[in-house]
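I hope you will forgive my troubling you with a question about protein structure. You will find the record immediately after this paragraph.
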Amino acid sequence: MIETRGLTKIYGEFYAVKNLDLKLDRGDVFGFIGPNGSGKTTTMRMLATLLQPTYGEAYVCGNSIYNKPKEIRRLIGFMPDFFGVYDDMKVLEYLEFFAAAYRINGQQRRKKCEQVLELVELTYKSHALVTSLSRGMTQRLGLARTLLHDPQVLLLDEPASGLDPRARIEMRRLLKELRKTGKTIMFSSHILPELADVCNKVGIIERGVMEVNADVEEVLRRARSKLLLHVGVRENAEGAAKLLSQMDGVEAVEPKEKFIVVTMKPGVSDYSHLPTLLIEAGYKLTRFNEDEIDLERAFMALTKGITA
């Protein structure tokens, strides 16, 4: 659905995007992560045919961004990080205006507008002025506008930017619903812990270069070089820590306030013998689990936080 080969955008001597290779199939949900100024928006604008690359190739649904921009625009829905609204329009009028631009006419136009309003849960605001909407509602209205022509590919630039926690949860739920429909979705976000719950693929871009491009599980695996365990015992944590430090496969043991952190040696993934030995030694376990790394920690581990 989306494929780029060496996609590059240069301003003077400044590489906004450099030799970007990417391939997304139907139904993929791709989380685009990177510091401000790293090239995320530039990439999306090139894919949306709103910005001409310096060189490189890009295809959307098999169409070249150079030769078939009109065809691509019919197949994609692009939601920029900031978009204008018409102050004197009501929500339903706003959507009907854009539906007309997509040549959705007659009774089908009103029906389609009502359908997308229902999807983003804004039906009760259909006769409210656009300017009366909260930030979260405005973002949902922007997503509704993007969905009017039933695009195959969605390019969403920071769709959850500036939203409060409840609005972010609602936006995440919407993305999950869209994922079920089989659409290919590419969206950028700084709310890293929430991406793993929505995406199946993640790209980390820094200084215009795609440093990481893999499945979510692979990204988390690469960010964690050693396995960490959290172990809790009801009493005598000091003795438990000493015993753990002597067990096979354990590299280091560090007692914390509420649990013991056990670092396994590189390459060791089987720790099933540890709880058994602790219990046989008379310790009562209150906690025994892996330290789960999230995308935020993975991002910090795999990048230097440098922008172009």
